[in-house]
Amino acid sequence: MSAAQDQLEIKFRLTDGSDIGPRNFPVATSIATLKENIIAEWPREKEDGPHTVKDIKLISAGRILENSRSVGECRSPLCDIPGGVTTMHVVVQPHETKPQTDPKQSKCACVIL
């Protein structure tokens, strides 16, 4: 394999249409590593950025990419043009917030007869 085939140039498209990258990544790079890179490079002016790898879904060629797979395993022969830039779409999952319950409010009701 040539050096060009050992690397992929990838840019990450955010939901507002802006991009992170493009940057070159070895084909052996895991999807989890790509997500860590996105977290590190997330634009500071954007609110609701991801905090962990689990907050991000990466989509390429219509498929959600699994963290344990490598970039090379996720390549699509139809979408990846040799020497071109691969675009992966980034979806940030909303943070789960547990509703605060008032300990004074009881869900039980007693009926006295």
Automatic annotation (TrEMBL):
- Cytoplasm among keywords: no
- Intracellular or extracellular location(s): Cell membrane
Which keywords, in A-to-Z order, does the entry hold? Cell membrane, Lipoprotein, Membrane, Palmitate
GO CC, alphabetical: plasma membrane
Q: Could you tell me which residue ranges the UBL3-like ubiquitin domain spans?
A: 6-111
Q: Which CDD domains match?
A: Ubl_MUBs_plant
Q: Which InterPro entries match?
A: MUB, Ubiquitin-like_domsf, UBL3-like, UBL3-like_ubiquitin_dom
Q: What is its membrane topology?
A: Lipid-anchor
Its domain of life reads Eukaryota
Q: Does the keyword Acyltransferase apply?
A: no
Query: What does this gene product do?
Result: May serve as docking site to facilitate the association of other proteins to the plasma membrane.
PANTHER family given for it? MEMBRANE-ANCHORED UBIQUITIN-FOLD PROTEIN 2 (PTHR13169:SF26), UBIQUITIN-LIKE PROTEIN 3 HCG-1 PROTEIN (PTHR13169)
Protein name per its UniProtKB record:
Membrane-anchored ubiquitin-fold protein
